[in-house]
Amino acid sequence: MKFKLALGASFGAVFIASAIAHIPASWVWQQAPAVPGLTVTGISGTVWQGRADKISWQQQSFGQVYWDINVLDLLTAKVSADVRFGQGSDMALRGRGEVGYTLSGGPYAKQLMVSLPAQQALNYAKLPIPLTATGHLELALQEYQFAVPYCKSLTGTLTWSQPKVGTPMGDLELGQAKADLRCVKGNLQTSVKQSSTDVSSEWSATLDQRQNYQVSGWFKPGANFPTALGSQLKWLGNPDSKGQYRINQQGRL
Predict the structure, then answer these.
(1) Hey, what's the signal peptide range on this chain (predicted)?
(2) Is residue 17 scored above 80 in pLDDT?
């Protein structure tokens, strides 16, 4: 009798485990409450490993998404998944890495890589003059832990490869530009270096938790700095002894 009970319990456990392991991702999505503006189509695979052919937010397509949940992490009160996304995105967005959630720390990302054409990012910026941009922005987050409003911790870089800016008064070749990203006491901080025969510069910026920002740095026109742009530098005053124009700005977003 005990043997039959044990055998039945074993078969029951196997059945339950198999059912959980094969829960269709599409069924889970159908049970989830609707989120206004969010559309997900072409869901296949299981809740643990699968894909969605298209994810859209406010009619903006972010393309395909693939996920592979690390099941063993569930034993440590942590949900983590390796993801790839962006194929077919309206913005030519691409990305891959690990994202997750812990009970102790909340949402996080690790070894996350995201790339986007610079012009696509510029399209979302509200600028007083028309500009164009070429090259790619590549965000690399070695480690990111979210906390309201921005972060608890952050280590990463933002690289602009083959950068070029077009202005009504001439184009600027920037050479490779790289920004180091940090989170200090909940505030976002970055430092940027850039150098080319057109212009060189160094900048630092801080955005605090109340959306106050500070930007300071300098730029120095190079041998190939556009003449038309050079004629406008008089409005900035005189450069220092190194030929650098100093810029300091602060305000609120």
Answers:
(1) 1-21
(2) no
- Cβ–Cβ under 8 Å, residues 167 and 190: no
Pair of tokens at residue 223: 């041998």
Average pLDDT for 181-189:
96
What is the reported pLDDT for 10?
46
C-alpha 79/C-alpha 105 separation (Å) is: 11
The pTM is what?
Answer: 0.86
Q: pLDDT-based confidence at 15, cuts 50/70/90?
A: very low
Q: 3-state SS string over the chain?
A: CHHHHHHHHHHHHHHHHHHHHCCEHHHHHHHCCCCCCEEEEEEEEECCEEEEEEEEECCEECCCEEEEECHHHHHHCEEEEEEEECCCCCCCCEEEEEEEEECCCEEEEEEEEEEEEHHHHHHCCCCCCCCEEEEEEEEEEEEEECCCCCCCEEEEEEEEEEEEEEECCEEEECCCEEEEEEEECCEEEEEEEEECCCEEEEEEEEECCCCEEEEEEEEEECCCCCHHHHCCHHHHCCCCCCCCEEEEEEEEC
